[in-house]
């Protein structure tokens, strides 16, 4: 099985990403630390901002921590499995302060983990977001809101998908992004602990990480559906729960859909699928990748995944996109000029396309709003449709 390592070609990809200010974790280099990065240009010192969500609804954000006492943590068996979760939701209009992207301590640890030099240690904590901190939720319809779980790449924080989360919440979704314990460089806990990436040191097989994460996602779904009010969320619809993941999170999304009938749909954003080729999956699944995922045979796991899908399926790739084009970090890569020669798609376009395609897919599958994804694809000339 594929190890989650940073050797060879993957290591070179990681080094290039680290030089871009942030987080070196392409699907084949997840878990490995990057080589030392060159100092970033002075322009990178300016505080970045996420693009504003385009939906009509204000967005609120709460953070919670859940403990699964039925499981010991595979990377730290002395503790039960703990999940730190960001919850975005449609909110009432509020003058509450804007939420933070990450804390200054988290920013320092993330940058140090990836050996990023020449930038302020608190750079990431100064990223501006649009959600307000814990305003009252907007009342949900009688059927409840659809729920989307987000799983980030290995060694990437849950916050790397904040832009997508805010967009979804502004359009009427409840969204929960999870930091899988000991799989990110800096996870803050209510008791003051800040844990690091123990799993990175263990270099586990990708299939094992995907399986652990699928269990996390199942536990998170069950807890939120059982008592959304205790987490500050409005009523949720248990029949409309999807999971979307980037990189290793995409592998986890596939494994969650494959093993748990409680998920109605899932999407993989440019992730190697470590558990493909086992058995058919009869619910909707979206493969959305960078340009390389449009080349036949470029990732054999996508071919196996495609053959596993007996239900509604879609395979799309985005010309000129790179691995991190589907995350919040695309603008930072662009600003430092370190995205790589293969990344020709502008960061603003990458973020817009990601949001439009994911929202259209979820609207179609969770809300039965017609062929929204077909429309989004037609309006994005950079997107290549490889089949359904």
Automatic annotation (TrEMBL):
GO-annotated molecular function: hydrolase activity
Low complexity bias (residue ranges): 40-61
UniProt-recorded name of the protein: Alpha/beta hydrolase family protein
Annotated region (Disordered), positions in chain: 40-77
Xref: Pfam families: PAF-AH_p_II
UniProt KW keywords: Hydrolase, Lipid degradation, Lipid metabolism, Signal
Residue stretches in coiled coil: none
Residues spanning the signal sequence: 1-31
